Automatic annotation (TrEMBL):
Protein name: Phosphogluconate dehydratase
Function: Catalyzes the dehydration of 6-phospho-D-gluconate to 2-dehydro-3-deoxy-6-phospho-D-gluconate.
Source taxonomy: Bacteria, Pseudomonadati, Pseudomonadota, Alphaproteobacteria, Sphingomonadales
EC number: 4.2.1.12
Similarity comment: Belongs to the IlvD/Edd family.
Length: 604
């Protein structure tokens, strides 16, 4: 294995030094929790009896503390395709636990939103803050003190970060995440994209659009494009929180069930030995590995928000400058839709996470010495699992079987990881270059300024955007409306670009892992509602966006001398008013866009 790249070492050392105080306080708290926190031996008889009263055949084993008792925290619902398979997991996992002298109980459930259902709808304003709700729900589930370890059942966008953030407050316990895998491939993603753009232009009707979408999203499992949900799975592998190779095995297969069984057995072993607690697994090096994986595979821009939030829950501080410097050191070695034509099933069959892990380790681009929960060391994640009878074996993945999708480090698609920090008199923002043609990395054009995506769609329908344009959509940040994804804009901006115009998006909102070929400066900080300069832009201002030079600026404009525009009224309806207290206290996107974490840090 190669020596660690000095650029990655330098960023990691900076994160460790920056985090020294907060990480030390976190580890001290976890040490105190391990020694004095709530646990089964410390419960009163009344407390304890409540905890096993309905445990059926496991009742005696839990009562006598015969073996470790594992918490199951589940984000099951059967509306969300990725989480529908979890319905039967708890009963299976209880059987798997008994096989190794352990027990398991469903400790609690968390909400699980589907951004695909709420995309472009009022409910999307709840999406990002659902992560805080999930974290708090996880804490409630684990607060009973009945457990020696925990299995976290979750996959999708805010759900995995939320589970981890909540679980890290119980980081003295060993924990693992257990995925359910992607749905089988349906309609080709490029065809889906083509139909969406035709619909945006009025060239096909709603029936044809629905038929296309239904052929793409057609079964249980995660959506097959490489968005936030599947980027989550990649990160859990590189952080060592899965059984190796668990990420992209389809639901309902014998191998999928065998991997769940292996995870329960492994977790029971860790709990019995009281080793590899979550707080030690999720350290500075694991956070850097997650960021490197994101960059190397062209993953979701949402993780420029989620990784800092997960890190903060463990007392670690990482910022967008760190991402930018890591991106310069890490080549892009995967092209998965929307950055390529194939989906995550194709990616997995080409070598998948095993190949990614191996080639990055061999090039010295990952921390190899991290403590992993799912295996003895990170190198174990460079094998792809298969069944040999009833046993799982891991085959070392020697090479990619599809170089149009997955390449070794020495033959990358791009020399860097494609996530740039752009800064200037408008603020700080993220620009994902990996899906954008290099000739579009610099855009200089007049601004058209809007306060929501519906206004953009109306202007497009009225043929007002047929020109070189930087579409500015502000008041979309955490404090304004919960920072929804602006996925509705992808087809119309793509149409304008295909017509030959120089087009870019600038927003204090999000575009998600589904953002594609149009240049976009997103997550702009400070946001408009927080007196950000983006709130002072006017129609016609010339905006320069340059990923090559890291620029985001209004040309020849003194933004500080202007009055800020009045914000739109706060969102109400669809339960959005219930989240007003979170919007009021949320911090900025670079720090993770969380109200809960800010409040948590205020009390130590």
């Amino acid at each position: 294995m190669a020596k660690l790249d000095p650029r990655i070492a330098a960023v990691t050392d900076r994160i460790i030094e920056r985090s020294k105080g907060s990480r030390g306080r976190y580890l001290q708290l976890m040490g105190d929790e391990a020694e004095r926190g709530i646990s089964r031996p410390r419960l009163s008889c009344g407390n304890f009896a409540h905890g096993f009263a309905a445990s059926g055949e496991d009742k005696q084993a839990i009562r006598t503390m015969r073996g470790p008792n594992l918490a199951i925290v589940t984000a099951y619902n059967d509306m969300l395709s990725a989480h529908q398979p979890y319905g039967r997991y708890p009963e299976q996992m209880k059987i798997f636990a008994r096989e190794v002298g352990a027990t398991a109980q469903v400790a609690g459930g968390t909400p699980a939103m589907c951004d695909g259902v709420t995309q472009g709808q009022p409910g999307m304003d709840l999406s990002l803050f659902s992560r805080d709700v999930i974290a708090m729900s996880t804490a409630v589930a684990l607060s009973h003190g009945m457990f020696d370890g925990a299995a976290l059942l979750g996959i999708c966008d805010k759900i995995v970060p939320g589970l981890l953030i909540g679980a890290l407050r119980f980081g003295h316990l060993p924990m693992m995440l257990i995925p359910s895998g992607p749905m089988p491939s349906g309609l080709a993603n490029k065809e889906k994209q083509r139909i969406r753009q035709l619909y945006a232009e009025g060239k096909v009707g709603k029936d044809e659009l629905l038929a296309s979408e239904s052929a793409s999203y057609h079964a249980a499992g995660t959506c097959t494009f490489y968005g936030t949900a599947n980027s989550n799975q990649m990160m859990m592998e590189l952080m060592g929180l899965h059984i190796p190779g668990a990420a992209f095995i389809n639901p309902g297969t014998p191998l999928r069930q065998a991997m769940t069984r292996a995870a329960v057995h492994r977790l029971a072993e860790l709990a019995k030995e009281k080793t590899r607690p979550l707080a030690q697994v999720v350290d500075e090096k694991a956070i850097v590995n997650a960021a490197i994986g994101l960059l190397a595979t062209g993953g979701s821009t949402n993780h420029a928000i989620h990784i800092p939030a997960i890190a903060r829950a463990a007392g670690i501080v990482i910022d967008w400058q760190d991402f930018d410097e890591l991106s310069a050191a890490v080549p892009l070695i995967a092209r998965v839709y929307p950055n390529g034509s194939g989906d995550v099933n194709d990616f997995h069959h080409a070598g998948g996470m095993a190949f990614v892990t191996r080639t990055l380790l061999e090039a010295g681009l990952l921390h190899a010495d991290t403590l992993t929960a799912g295996a003895d060391q990170l190198e174990a994640y460079s094998g792809n699992p298969r069944l040999d009878g009833e046993e799982i074996v891991w085959d070392r993945t020697a090479e990619s079987t599809d170089l149009t999708m997955l390449r070794p480090v020495n033959e990358p698609f791009l020399a860097d990881g494609g996530m740039r920090l752009v800064t200037g008199n408008i603020g700080r923002a993220t620009f994902k270059t990996s899906a954008v043609s290099p000739e579009r990395w610099t855009i200089e054009a007049p601004a058209r300024v809007f306060s929501d995506q519906e206004q953009v769609l109306a202007a497009f329908a009225a043929d007002e955007l047929n020109q070189d344009v930087v579409v500015v959509v502000r008041f979309q940040g955490p404090r304004a409306n919960g920072m929804p994804e602006l996925h509705k804009l992808t087809p119309v901006l793509g149409v304008l670009q295909d017509r030959g115009y120089q087009v870019a998006l600038l927003t204090d909102g999000r575009m998600s892992g589904a953002s594609g070929k149009v240049p976009a400066a997103i997550h702009c900080c400070p946001e408009a509602l927080n007196d950000g300069p983006i709130g002072r832009l006017r129609d016609g201002d010339i905006v320069r966006l340059c990923a090559k030079r890291g620029l985001l600026e209004a040309v020849d404009v003194d933004l500080a001398s202007r009055d800020a525009c009045a914000p739109p009224p706060p969102p109400i309806g669809t339960g959005r008013e219930l989240f007003a207290f979170m919007r009021a206290t949320a911090d900025n996107a670079e720090r993770g866009a969380s109200a809960m974490l800010s409040a948590m840090e205020a009390v130590g």
